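Notes from the pairing session

We agreed to fold both candidates in a single pass and log them together. This is the raw record for the first candidate, unedited. Please don't reformat it; downstream parsing expects exactly this layout.

Candidate A
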Amino acid sequence: MPRYTVHVRGEWLAVPCQDAQLTVGWLGREAVRRYIKNKPDNGGFTSVDDAQFLVRRCKGLGLLDNEDRLEVALEDNEFVEVVIEGDAMSPDFIPSQPEGVYLYSKYREPEKYIELDGDRLTTEDLVNLGKGRYKIKLTPTAEKRVQKSREVIDSIIKEKTVVYGITTGFGKFARTVIPINKLQELQVNLVRSHSSGVGKPLSPERCRMLLALRINVLAKGYSGISLETLKQVIEMFNASCLPYVPEKGTVGASGDLAPLSHLALGLIGEGKMWSPKSGWADAKYVLEAHGLKPVILKPKEGLALINGTQMITSLGCEAVERASAIARQADIVAALTLEVLKGTTKAFDTDIHALRPHRGQIEVAFRFRSLLDSDHHPSEIAESHRFCDHVQDAYTLRCCPQVHGVVNDTIAFVKNIITTELNSATDNPMVFANRGETISGGNFHGEYPAKALDYLAIGIHELAAISERRIERLCNPSLSELPAFLVAEGGLNSGFMIAHCTAAALVSENKALCHPSSVDSLSTSAATEDHVSMGGWAARKALRVIEHVEQVLAIELLAACQGIEFLRPLKTTTPLEKVYDLVRSVVRFGK
């Protein structure tokens, strides 16, 4: 018998259908009838006939025709949403799909795998896992390590040894010994009580990264999780069944407890879960739709799933990769601006930078030389002012290797810390199979990634700060020798006047966001956890700073391409002309 899972006003209803010849309209009415039946006030309806509604697929949000037969319009066990006309959205309402649903409507299950062993994951790998490009499987070595680690836990339980988090309570309750017959309940209670985060849920990409990274840490074999449970978690990842994880709530020690608990809550079939097939729905329905069973936690496994710095680190991976990309793009954009402002290439001479041999500075100067006027790539614009009496440029042009360079070195420094963190065991207690014992420690403390990501925000911000000043030079006719605000009919058109204001606003906002979150600490858990990293906010605000940097540089790129129009018919170098052509393929010249 076909069955459909239907979303009505935040409720999920399983609606069986005995006759596939029935219509989409019937399914909508039956779902509304069941919704009314479950509400003490009938959901505000006097009868089903009062409800005017639309029906749409959760995957892609495509509207369905109420007259279409179910056997034609829907697959068995498909997820659909009934939208009641005239409903105002509650602030607590969870939509069936995340923002940007169109990005997920074309999702295709990947065919390739990445093998995880807890030792070799890179930032690039994790970002690709987040984008859904790979499935996961464990290496044979990792499987053996996980099994041996679990044997230690089983031995502790059999011998009734008192060990933190396995046979005791947590935090302030670490001295409370739990009876053997309550150990599984202890783990479930832990996950439920710690699922206390707030805010928007992580996007599917970020939740994939979080889940993949937790799997990688568990694969190291120091967490005590069973191989059976770990393989269940991997199956959920491979099916893209992703729990509802609010972005706020971690203080970064003891690890990222709140977000990782929400992650674990979905894995045990509670709370909300998302998949490309279902959108947001009750976790038990999503798992059932994919032929998966909820995890039944064994002793220590709840703690194994929630204790670590994976929220900070997974967001940190995205930050590092996006920062690396925009840093390379910043050199290209700045080089184009220099051409438009008729700057000189002398400041990028090899001998100058050999005298101050910071790696980032040398790399940036090399990129500028590769992009600007040379025997290999001559520039007509550069040739037009070769013999002018201009001696040197403003700092925003002349000092790009020094300013952009330290940003590149900052990214490299942070990437090294994040890569180490990716492949680190951050549980407590640690399970050492070779010693046959568990040891309590502090690897869950997020100070390393927190400090690194604060540093990244400070470093990457400078790309926006210097870019905004170059935008000012492009727009100011007294500095650029170009029309005011890069528009021919000034007054009738305002040109880039307010685009520059937007860049200034973003740079100002970044100044506040660059205040380090890791300089703060608030004691928690009745002073048991009396120093924390605040790394979750460090990671989230680093991403906001990077987003603003991307936006400011996009404004500069548009302004530079606008400016070059006033130098035509002169051409710049071949590489920069290709950049111009790429921009003009999506944005036309503003007259």
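Candidate B (folded immediately after A)
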Amino acid sequence: MALSFRLCSSPLICRATLASNDNGRNHHANDAAFIRRAADLSEKSAGLTSPHPNFGCVIATSSGKVAGEGYLYAQGTKPAEAIAVEAAGEFSRGSTAYLNMEPGDCHGDHTAVSALVQAGIGRVVVGIRHPLQHLRGSAIRELRSHGIEVNVLGEDFQSKVLEDARKSCLLVNAPLIHRACSRVPFSVLKYAMTLDGKIAASSGHAAWISSKLSRTRVFELRGGSDAVIVGGNTVRQDDPRLTARHGQGHTPTRIVMSQSLDLPEEANLWDVSEVSTIVATQRGARKSFQKLLASKGVEVVEFDMLNPREVMEYFHLRGYLSILWECGGTLAASAISSGVIHKVVAFVAPKIIGGRQAPSPVGDLGMVEMTQALNLIDVCYEQVGPDMLVSGFLQPIPDLLPVIPSEEATFEIEPSVNPFEASIIFFYKTWDLYGSFSNFSPHPVRMPYGEESDDYRTWSSVEHYYQASKFVGVENPLAHDCVERIRTARSPEEAALIGRSKQRQNPELVRSDWEDVKIEVMYTALKCKFSTYPHLKSILLSTAGSVLVEASPHDLFWGGGREGEGLNYLGRLLMQLRSEYIGESSVSAQNASLA
């Protein structure tokens, strides 16, 4: 029998009539069905964009009919709640909104809550509270302050059917929850093996163990990950490409872990024309080879002690949510022993290869008795062509209950705790604290189509405008086409991908003065954003006295770098803008006192 490990193996059918509140069982069943539908929706962009917090929203009328629904497409795009109420139109008034997770894609942005309030939503059912502490509970409190009834699964009412629905909400945002709780990306170990537990023949030959259908599923797994990790032995023996091979959407970064850098000078992974490669190695290893890799555009990151835990903590700081491990048995065993593997996905092919020296998927873990074996939990099985897909968790998804007070709630309890007292404030991803400072935040700006132009247009984000400005004014049809592609890109992530790749592949399309004007372009766009949105300006002013640092560990121009070696121009520009606003306020105060 074919079994599915997906959250919902068939479309949900919601009843046309909602039972009365007196019939608690049916009432819970309907709430659970709509919450599961919201969870399913939230995964719609998997493989199309880089991993991000997954939000889905379903608007259901009092009669139980779906009036509208939506999901967050990518970081920095329109919230799921806003899309759903637009689709529902006038049917939103008095209806119930079902959210798989409490709103909060970008700190400082209230678009999702405002959309629900302005649409006249009467009740909101939330699957789970937001995992990130600086966002947790904020949207729920705000909704309740507007008189909207808010119910949270597992808190306001409980039942078996609701617990199952809540679990689906935990699963779709497992990467975000692990990021919040364990400070490492959510890591999945994937391998294909024969029925007798071999990942290759004794000779090392491994193409192919699994079927074409299974390999297609692997491409999907890659597309839903920030990065794919392999070890040096995999590079030497298999020379993989590690692409998603779907022709569109998100392609993960390739990561190679190699302590000695005993790697070939020519390899498919050194081709970074379409997707980047990062090599993680021991500090001081083969400096000449590091220079060779750098000349090919491969990024090399050195570690004092190269081990899976250190590498994962680094990529957590880099903002990665989800990592797919496609390594051999030695590195897999090290990663499991380090406690960084959360889930295992194994494709078992109905083949026997034998061989005493044939490698197995996991190397020595130091276990000598079967009672020491690691047991998977929430195990699922699915037949994929002739293969059997077995998946399960090595570590349970951390439970978000009981509620941990947010900084705001803590400040209300203990006024001496000031959330803004730090001398250095870091920001990076839009979902992190102070994420609205990012040029990727979901705040459209109205800027001219060229510095001397009177043709003002709305750009979906600062990043859209910044990337397009590279090509504005260049008398070349390809440059004009590039500007329009960037302007209409669905997310800041896609705008950046288009702009950066074109700049690298076709430098002749970039305006000749770009290096001289790019800082001013960014500053002008940032000033427009913070001037357009008063609440963002207030957040910026609240940081007075603190140093602002864009925490990207790899961008040494706009960011602060891994060890503070970056120029941090984005942080500098924000501090410059903050000083300008403070100066304007002082002048206004002086004029008022003289009036």
